[in-house]
Every structure is written in structure tokens, then in C-alpha cells.
TrEMBL record:
<keyword id="KW-0472">Membrane</keyword>
<comment type="function">
    <text>Part of the twin-arginine translocation (Tat) system that transports large folded proteins containing a characteristic twin-arginine motif in their signal peptide across membranes. Together with TatC, TatB is part of a receptor directly interacting with Tat signal peptides. TatB may form an oligomeric binding site that transiently accommodates folded Tat precursor proteins before their translocation.</text>
</comment>
<dbReference type="InterPro" id="IPR018448">
    <property type="entry name" value="TatB"/>
</dbReference>
<dbReference type="GO" id="GO:0033281">
    <property type="term" value="C:TAT protein transport complex"/>
</dbReference>
<dbReference type="GO" id="GO:0043953">
    <property type="term" value="P:protein transport by the Tat complex"/>
</dbReference>
<feature type="coiled-coil region">
    <location>
        <begin position="52"/>
        <end position="79"/>
    </location>
</feature>
<dbReference type="InterPro" id="IPR003369">
    <property type="entry name" value="TatA/B/E"/>
</dbReference>
<comment type="subunit">
    <text>The Tat system comprises two distinct complexes: a TatABC complex, containing multiple copies of TatA, TatB and TatC subunits, and a separate TatA complex, containing only TatA subunits. Substrates initially bind to the TatABC complex, which probably triggers association of the separate TatA complex to form the active translocon.</text>
</comment>
<keyword id="KW-0811">Translocation</keyword>
<keyword id="KW-1133">Transmembrane helix</keyword>
<keyword id="KW-0997">Cell inner membrane</keyword>
<keyword id="KW-0653">Protein transport</keyword>
<keyword id="KW-0175">Coiled coil</keyword>
<keyword id="KW-0813">Transport</keyword>
<dbReference type="Pfam" id="PF02416">
    <property type="entry name" value="TatA_B_E"/>
</dbReference>
<dbReference type="GO" id="GO:0008320">
    <property type="term" value="F:protein transmembrane transporter activity"/>
</dbReference>
<comment type="similarity">
    <text>Belongs to the TatB family.</text>
</comment>
Length: 161
């Protein structure tokens, strides 16, 4: 950048005053200012256009990356679907060797009862004092019981002064 200090500007102004003359100096200064303004606007426009082109190039690269990711995902899904379809077709062709026995309804009911029993045992395995310390609920209250328990009591001694 050009290093113009106050001394250099004063020297340029004095030379311009001598060379151009005092009557034409304001017109020349206005014209030089307008030309400098035009040059700055032109440079700003060029900078903005370059930055837009850079952003557009980055967006194009991002779009290309997204398209590559989408095609990779599509090929992966297509491959997995082909594998699943092949497995289903193999099961459909020869169901005797690939199928597991379907449990009977009474077996399912027995398994459900065992699961519920184990769940009750798991939940009730903790002692009551531990549940109280940790804040676990030991008893459940219905909504109406909670309202009755926590409703503020009405004041019976109301005195008027």
C-alpha cells in the first residue's frame, strides 16, 4: 500500500496548487475524488463477485459430496434389500429347513406369566428402607387420594375485627 502521511499530502497539495492554479484546483479535486470513489466502488464490486464465486464453488463441492453420500446410501440399501430378498426367497423355496417352530398359545401364556413373575420379583427385591432412601415409590396413590392428601385444610377459626 502507498504510505501517504500528512507531510506527503501537504507537498502534493502545494505542487498541485502551483501547477494547476488556484482557480482550477477545486474542480480538479472534485474530479479526482469522484474518480477515486468510482475506483473504490469498482474494486468492491470485483471483491463481492469473487467472494460469490468462491461461495458458489463451495456449494457445488458440498452438493457433489451430498450426491456421493446419497448414491453410497442408495447402493448400500439396494445391497441389503437384495440380501433380504434372497433370504426370503430361500425361505419361501424351502420352508422346512429354515423355519423355527411356532410356539403354541399356551406356551406363550406360560412365558408371559413367567416374565411377569420375574418382573415382580425384580421390583420387590429391594428392601423398603432402601426405596425410601433413594426416593423410589413404595406405594401408589390414585389421583383422588393425592388430592385429598395434599389439599390445604380450610381454616375454621376466622375472626373478624
Amino acid at each position: 500500500m502507498i504510505d501517504l502521511g500528512l507531510a506527503k499530502l501537504a507537498m502534493i497539495g502545494a505542487v498541485a496548487l502551483i501547477v494547476i492554479g488556484p482557480e482550477k484546483l477545486p474542480k480538479v479535486a472534485r474530479m479526482a475524488g469522484s474518480l477515486l470513489g468510482r475506483a473504490q466502488r469498482y474494486l468492491n464490486d470485483v471483491k463481492a463477485e469473487v467472494s460469490r464465486e468462491i461461495e458458489l464453488d463451495e456449494l457445488r463441492k458440498m452438493q457433489q459430496n451430498m450426491q456421493e453420500a446419497a448414491t453410497d446410501l442408495q447402493s448400500t440399501v439396494a445391497k441389503e434389500m437384495a440380501e433380504v430378498e434372497q433370504n426370503v426367497n430361500s425361505i419361501w423355496q424351502d420352508p422346512a429347513e429354515n423355519t423355527q417352530p411356532i410356539p403354541e398359545p399356551d406356551q406363550l401364556a406360560r412365558k408371559a406369566r413367567e416374565f411377569r413373575r420375574k418382573k415382580v420379583v425384580r421390583n420387590s427385591a429391594l428392601p423398603g428402607w432402601y426405596k425410601q432412601q433413594t426416593g423410589s415409590k413404595t406405594r401408589l396413590l390414585s389421583a383422588s387420594a393425592r388430592v385429598a392428601k395434599y389439599r390445604p385444610k380450610p381454616k375454621t377459626n376466622q375472626s373478624f375485627y
